[in-house]
Automatic annotation (TrEMBL):
GO terms for molecular function: structural constituent of cuticle. Residues 1-18 form the signal peptide. Keywords: Cuticle, Signal. It comes from Musca domestica (House fly). This is Cuticle protein 19-like. The gene is 101894044. The keyword Signal applies. PROSITE patterns: CHIT_BIND_RR_1, CHIT_BIND_RR_2. GO terms for cellular component: extracellular matrix; extracellular space. The keyword Transmembrane does not apply. Pfam families: Chitin_bind_4 (PF00379).
Length: 135
């Protein structure tokens, strides 16, 4: 009985391998045109209000011209909006805008005792001024 079971198992494995080989050979012989005119478009988005993960992206390509953009809600409450285009002649160009005003958590001075009394952890001040140029 063990010999019969083992023989059936070996035959099934051999048939499966032969099928996989034949299928692989068919796919291998297919030819792809790597120089075809590229054309596609896509769009997707996420809107998770619980985690405040809000973003979307879109892109359209026809030949050497690409147009696209994305929107992203940042952790500080602002929204970044980027629109871009690219082609073989002028390269890549992006228009980046920030909408809204950044909101940072309030700092509370808690009285504490011990070695680090009065120290604030988890917050840092910027030593570099960033200027925003919005249209």
């Amino acid at each position: 009985m063990k010999f019969l079971t083992l023989t059936v198992l070996i035959v099934l494995c051999a048939l499966s391998m032969a099928h996989d080989y034949a299928e692989h050979k068919v796919h291998k012989e297919e030819k792809h045109d790597y120089y075809a005119h590229p054309k596609y478009q896509f769009k997707y988005g996420v809107k998770d209000l619980k985690t405040e993960d809000i973003k979307e992206q879109w892109e359209h390509r026809d030949g050497d011209k690409v147009y696209g953009g994305y929107l992203l809600k940042e952790a500080d409450g602002t929204t970044r909006v980027v629109n871009y285009h690219a082609d073989d002649h002028s390269g890549f160009h992006a228009d980046v805008k920030t909408i809204g005003e950044a909101k940072h958590p309030e700092i509370h001075n808690h009285e504490s005792h011990g070695k680090h009394a009065g120290a604030h952890y988890g917050h840092a001040e910027s030593y570099f001024k960033i200027e925003k140029h919005l249209e």
